[in-house]
Amino acid sequence: MVGVDDVINKLSTVIDPDLNKDIVSMGMIKDLDLNSGNLKFTLELTTPACPFNEEIEADVRKAIDELDGIKNLDMNVTAKVMEGRSLDADESMKTVKNIIAVASGKGGVGKSTVALNLALALSRTGAKVGLLDADIYGPSIPLMLGMKNAAMQVEDKKLQPPESNGIKVVSFGFFAEQEHQAAIYRGPIISGIVKQFLVDTNWTDLDYLIVDLPPGTGDIPLTLAQTIPITGILVVTTPQDVASSVASKAIGMFDKLNVPMLGVVENMSYFECSKCNEKHYIFGKGGAEKISKKHNMPFLGSIPLNSGIMEGSDLGKPVMITQPDSPSAEAFTAAAKNVAAQCSIQHYKMKEEAEAEAKWDGLSPEARQKILVGLIDEMVTLGGNIAPEDENKTWAELEHAIQDAIIPHLFGESKVQTTPTTS
Questions:
Q1: Letter string b/e over residues 365-385, b meaning 16 or more CB atoms within 10 A of that residue's CB
Q2: In Å, how far are 316, 352, 384 from 408, measured between CA atoms?
Q3: Mean pLDDT, the chain, as a whole number?
Q4: What is the largest CA-CA distance in the chain?
Q5: Where is each MIP18 family-like domain found (predicted)?
Q6: 107 labelled as ligand-binding?
Q7: Secondary structure in 3-state letters for the chain
Q8: What confidence tens digit (pLDDT) does each residue in 19-63 have?
Q9: Does the annotation place 112 within a ligand binding site?
Q10: Does residue 110 have a known ligand-binding role?
């Protein structure tokens, strides 16, 4: 007769494709009950925007079907967004589970359009989403959402963000007549405005806060990275080399600040002719994939060139709202799901790193030395260097590259797939 242990063991064979871990060890099976062959449990996904939710659900049903003695299956599928950043280190924004900064090396790549439609796509999956327009000099989100007349109120010393299409929105564009006034401020004042938008806004219970950064590597990206722990950076580029090469410089800045890179999205990837159905690569091809390979970061999606995207933005009617079933909206949705998956991966990477820190700090210098000796050749390949004194360093004192190399040796293999091949 089939028992609970048999069910658990069988469900342990189902692997989450993004996280490379079984669903039982990740705690995705809740409230399991087995009574006279009647099986009931909840499958709790790591995000409502999981790109593999249908695949995982099908794998679970198939696994249960292979068990003899199960008469009926009552499976409830839910989702709970994981925290992809350290909330313990962020007293001011504890109710925001993930902060995703959307960056680009240069202007004109459609970064704000991508940020807006990704936010809307995540919201359509059922996630609670906020959007912060951090481009103080050229805020465009109010225009793109048709919120030119919106205003922010202050209650209990907190800015209250207005809502549009289910997402909370904050922009400097709500505070000035942007058609007539230029934001002429020096760096410290700009940094102060961004900090206030972050920590003095009522971001209540958000799963994802999308931050639309200005292009380049100036004060605002630095302020964000140094003010609060964030889940990671999403880089937006276009296919041509001039855009991707400048984007690499932005990636280099965030690498120096030890901010995780979630991946890269390519905007204006191609134009698909409605008459011949052929794809025309107007701005070249493969720029984002080159960045992905060069920096060992996931390629999360391609957004086609479409006049409807531009027209919708100018009219305050984003394509995710006006044409939710269009190829453009489907591309944004696919990219948003991949971004959400990367946030879940960051959550489990943080857990893994915390376990690694406890394990490393508990080892003797002799045991540490044995691990480090085995890493010498590997670190030469990676361009790193192991020093004799590293065996006496705590986990926090080790270089990040050395930490990454040590983790597989502490656990046998890395438990989290860090650069999935999503597209």
A1: eeebeebbeebeeebeeeebe
A2: 49, 10, 17
A3: 86
A4: 76
A5: 5-71
A6: yes
A7: CCCHHHHHHHHCCCEECCCCEECCCCCCEEEEEEECCEEEEEEEECCCCCCCHHHHHHHHHHHHHCCCCCCEEEEEEEECCCCCCCCCCCCCCCCECCEEEEECCCCCCCHHHHHHHHHHHHHHCCCCEEEEECCCCCCCHHHHCCCCCCCCEEECCEEECCEECCEEEEEHHHCCCCCCCCCCCCHHHHHHHHHHHHHCECCCCECEEEEECCCCCCHHHHHHHHHCCCCEEEEEECCCHHHHHHHHHHHHHHHHCCCCEEEEEECCCCEECCCCCCEECCCCCCHHHHHHHHHCCCEEEECCCCHHHHHHHHHCCCHHHHCCCCHHHHHHHHHHHHHHHHHHHHHHHHHHHHHHHHHHHCCCHHHHHHHHHCCHHHHHHHCCCCCHHHHHCCHHHCCHHHHHHHHHHHHCCCCCCCCCCCC
A8: 888 999 989 999 999 999 999 999 999 899 888 889 999 999 999
A9: yes
A10: yes
Best-predicted range by mean pLDDT (12-21, 331-340, 345-354):
331-340
The pLDDT tens digits of the residues spanning 258-301 come to: 889 999 999 998 888 777 878 888 888 888 888 999 888 999 99
Question: 402 near 410, Cβ under 8 Å?
Answer: no
Architecture of domain 99-347: 3-Layer(aba) Sandwich (3.40)
Delimit the CATH 3.30.300.130 region(s) of the chain: 4-79
Quick one: tokens of 133? 């327009």
Which two three-digit tokens encode residue 64? 């249960």
User: What is the pLDDT at residue 384?
Assistant: 62
pLDDT tens digits, residue range 365-381?
888 888 888 787 666 66
Q: How many CB atoms lie within 10 A of CB 361?
A: 12
CATH 3.40.50.300 residue ranges for the chain: 99-347
CB 127 within 8 A of CB 208: yes
CA-based torsion, 378, 384, 385, 386: positive or negative: negative
User: Quick check: 71 and 37 in contact, CB under 8 A?
Assistant: yes
Tell me the fold of 4-79.
GMP Synthetase; Chain A, domain 3 (3.30.300)
CB atoms closer than 10 angstroms to residue 60: 21
User: Between helices 111-124 and 327-361, what is the axis angle to 10°?
Assistant: 80
Tell me what the mean pLDDT of segment 135-162 comes to.
88
Q: Are 38 and 71 in contact (CB under 8 A)?
A: yes
